[in-house]
Each structure stands twice: as C-alpha cells, then as structure tokens.
C-alpha cells in the first residue's frame, strides 16, 4: 500500500475562509492517499490565505516565507489557496516559494491537484462531508459566494466574483450534517447574507431559508454580514418572533455620513440607517457593526459625526478598520486621501469611544439573567475554573463575553442560566443560577 502523504493546513482570514478550509480538510481526510499532520511532520502545507487588505496579504506572504525554511530543510511543499491566488499582487520572492496555487474554483479538486503534485495515481474516493475546525457546538454555514455590492474600497468582487447563492437543497444538506453532529449554534455567513436567493432561478428570500432551518434541531441560528438595505420589516418581524433565530444582527455599516457613504458606493443614507436601527431596537434586536475610518475624503467633521453616532446609538459590539488603499478599487484613485497618521489616530479614537460606551452598557446589565452557551473552560488553579460563555447578543470570537468563576468542570456547548453580577471592562461577570 502506498504510504500516505501528510498534509498540514494553516488558516488565515475570516470565517468564510474557515468554511472553505473545512471543506478542503474534509476532502483530504476522505482520501486514502493523505493524512492530516502538523507543519513540522508534513509533506505539504496548505495555507488558506486572505487578501482583502494589504495587511492581510503581507501577513500571508510573511507566513509563506517563514514556512519556506521547512521547504529548504525538509522538502516540504507549499500550497496556496484562498484569496491570494485570485490576485496578481504577489511578490516574486513568494512566487518562487510556492509549489501549487489553488484558486477558489479549484478547491473542490484539492485532492486531485495534490495527487498530481506528488505524482500519485489519482485515487477513487468519496467526499463525505466537511471537517469542523470550530468548537463542536457551533459552526459556520456559507450560503452564498461573491458580492455584487461593489463598494468603492473593496477587493472582494475581484477576488470572489459576482454574488452566487448556494441552492436551498445544497445548504439544507450541509445543515443536516451539522445537525447530526450535534451543532447547537448555526451561524449563516456570506459576503451579503441578506441577499440570499435573489439570483436563483426560482427567486427566493432569506426568510424562505430561515423557515427551513428553524425546523431543524438547532438551538440558535445567527445571521452575520447583513447589508442594511436588505433588512425589511417582514424579516425583522420574523426574527423577533422566532424561537431559534437569535435577536442579534451583524450589519457592517462602514460609515454613517452621507457624503462618505456616497464615496464608498454604499446604498444607504444616515436617515435610513437611523430608521433601521430604531425599528430593530423596538424589537429588542441587538446590533453589531463595523466602520472604516480615515476613508478618502473623510473630513474631521464627518469623523466627529461618526463618533457622535457611536455615542448615541450605544451598540454593544463594534469593530473599526483604518481605510486601506487597495489597487484595482475605484477608491485607490480618489483625491483627498488621508495619511496613515490620521487614520491611525481616528481608529484609536473610535476604539476609545466605543470601549467607554461598552463599559457603561456592561454596568447596566447587573441583575439581568441570560441563557448562555459555554464556549471555553479555563483552569485557574486546582478546583477553580473560569467559564467563558456567550448570550444571544454575542457572536463567537469577535464579541464580548460572560465570565463565571466555578469550582467544577463544565462541558462546552451546554446552556446555562446566568445572572449578571458585575463587569470587568467590556465583559460581563455572572453566576450560574440553576
């Protein structure tokens, strides 16, 4: 029998990349010619890259060059997948390191491509299902690929192509596998989740998909990356009345001021944003958002108005990015570019502002009781543990947490009623009440 080649994986970038990585790992595991290994034992390393921002490309290139030492000492082959192969923004030094490039459209053929790289006769194998590299109680499910929004600063349409919804039956097939594995929190992701189904032959809406998923045995269903103009009253009502969809929406606004939004080619105005937030808050739906500061043409006045919005809206969880001037995007050639010092200072100011807002909100939570899911158990010392939990208003990995000190081990993925007793910074502190 042919000795199996050992394959290692390195994951970079967003949870959409993680979903792709899980499918590639699942294919490798199903093949009789390959086995999963760590980097130092591997015959080949697959680096699933992000290239959305210059900083992400630099991170990917740094890791590739770092792993090149293994190639020189052990003959390890370097395979690059993900966003980076979609672009021609790659240094010659990196090009010389790489043995195989796998574009996104080729990820389904990863086994065949790596077999060819090693000169292995093509195997007959059946792809069973994706791996899950997240903790077993939650999983990401990508429902569409690409994006049609064409924001002026964004490389995604160049990297991932036009918006293509995955068919309903294909999504439900993946969801059933996750259901059988015991996943309790299903997190729907795409570049624009709100747009799902509008491009299919039989026009469908996100609500049609949600109704099918709600029939399955998930405790929580979470919606990420919602473009604001795709959130209508019917969807808001459905989320508010659902027993499974968490009362939380991730809505990346990018900015709040009309001139900047127009420059960004965003189909929103400040008036419409405020109206949407009002309707969501009336239904007790928590909002997470992200903003770009220092965009080309953003003045001090417009930045200050953004800061005022953050103070007034009092969102629990907010992320900030400094504008990154990306080749191939329309904004690359915009006039009135802000320098890096201004962008860095504005991002710092925005984070300080939001941290102060989040701390005040955390203090107001004292005495409230939430159903929380346990993500992690940290051993403090013998017989003492710190439980890291989340309530519905908190997405994994990116949001605030609920911390509980406990004298016994508990199982990840279990649900607990937690009474909030205080806060530490922006995180909540509590105690289990049953």
Averaging pLDDT over every residue, what do you get? 92
* Helix/strand structural class: alpha/beta
Number of strands: 18
The proportion of residues in beta strands is: 15-25%
Helical stretch tally: 12
Strand order of the largest sheet: 6-9-10-11-12-13
Share of helical residues: 25-40%
Structural summary, described in words:
- With 434 residues, the protein is of the alpha/beta class.
- 33% of the residues lie in helices and 24% in strands.
- The chain has twelve helices and 18 strands.
- Helix 11 (300-313) runs parallel beside helix 12.
Question: Can you tag this structure with a few keywords?
Answer:
five-stranded parallel sheet, 434 residues, six-stranded parallel sheet, 12 helices
Explain the layout of strands and helices.
Elements: E1 5-11, H1 15-30, E2 34-36, E3 44-49, H2 54-74, E4 77-82, H3 92-97, E5 100-101, H4 110-118, E6 138-142, E7 144-145, H5 156-160, E8 164-165, H6 168-180, E9 185-189, H7 206-214, E10 220-223, H8 233-241, E11 245-250, H9 258-263, H10 270-282, E12 286-293, H11 300-313, E13 317-322, H12 340-363, E14 369-381, E15 384-390, E16 402-406, E17 415-424, E18 427-432
Parallel strand pairs: 1-2, 1-3, 3-4, 4-5, 6-9, 9-10, 10-11, 11-12, 12-13, 16-18
Antiparallel strand pairs: 7-8, 14-15, 14-17, 15-16, 17-18
Helix pairs in contact: 11-12
Can you give me a brief rundown of this structure?
This protein has 434 residues and is α/β, with parallel strands linked by helices. Helices cover 33% and strands 24% of the residues. Strands 6-9-10-11-12-13 form a 6-stranded parallel sheet.
């Amino acid at each position: 029998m042919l000795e199996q080649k050992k394959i290692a994986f390195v994951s970079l970038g967003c949870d959409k990349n993680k979903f792709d990585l899980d499918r590639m790992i699942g294919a490798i595991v199903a093949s009789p010619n390959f086995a999963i290994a760590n980097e130092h034992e591997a015959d080949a390393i697959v680096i699933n890259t992000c290239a959305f921002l210059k900083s992400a490309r630099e991170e990917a290139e740094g890791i590739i060059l770092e792993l090149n030492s293994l190639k020189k000492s052990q003959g390890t082959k370097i395979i690059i997948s993900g966003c980076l192969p979609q672009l021609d923004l790659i240094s010659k030094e990196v090009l010389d390191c790489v043995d195989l490039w796998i574009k996104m459209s080729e990820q389904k053929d990863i086994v065949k491509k790596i077999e060819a790289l090693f000169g292995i006769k093509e195997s007959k194998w059946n792809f069973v299902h994706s791996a899950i590299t997240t903790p077993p109680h939650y999983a990401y499910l990508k429902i569409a690929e690409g994006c049609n929004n064409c924001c002026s600063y964004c490389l995604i349409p160049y990297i991932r192509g036009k918006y293509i919804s995955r068919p309903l039956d294909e999504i439900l097939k993946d969801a059933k596998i996750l259901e059988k594995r015991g996943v309790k929190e299903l997190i729907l992701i795409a570049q624009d989740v709100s747009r799902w189904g509008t491009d299919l032959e039989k026009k469908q809406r996100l609500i049609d998909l949600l109704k099918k998923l709600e029939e399955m045995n998930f405790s929580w269903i979470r919606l990420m990356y919602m473009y604001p103009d795709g959130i209508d009253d019917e969807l808001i009502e459905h989320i508010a009345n659902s027993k499974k969809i968490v009362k939380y929406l991730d809505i990346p606004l990018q900015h709040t001021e009309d001139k900047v939004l127009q420059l960004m080619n965003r189909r929103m105005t400040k008036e419409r944003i405020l109206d949407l937030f009002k309707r969501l808050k009336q239904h007790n739906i928590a909002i997470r958002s992200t903003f770009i500061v220092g965009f080309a043409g953003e003045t001090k006045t417009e930045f200050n108005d953004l800061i005022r919005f953050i103070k007034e809206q009092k969102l629990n969880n907010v992320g900030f990015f400094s504008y990154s001037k990306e080749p191939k995007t329309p904004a690359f050639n915009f006039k009135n570019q802000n320098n890096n010092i201004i962008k860095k200072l504005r991002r710092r100011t925005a984070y300080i502002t939001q941290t102060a807002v989040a701390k005040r909100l955390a203090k107001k939570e004292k005495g409230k009781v939430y159903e929380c899911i346990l993500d992690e158990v940290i051993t403090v010392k013998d017989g003492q543990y710190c439980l890291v939990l989340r309530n519905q208003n908190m997405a994994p990995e990116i949001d605030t947490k609920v911390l509980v000190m406990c004298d016994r081990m508990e199982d990840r993925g279990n649900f607990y009623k937690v009474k909030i007793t205080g806060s530490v910074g922006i995180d909540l502190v509590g105690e289990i009440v049953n």
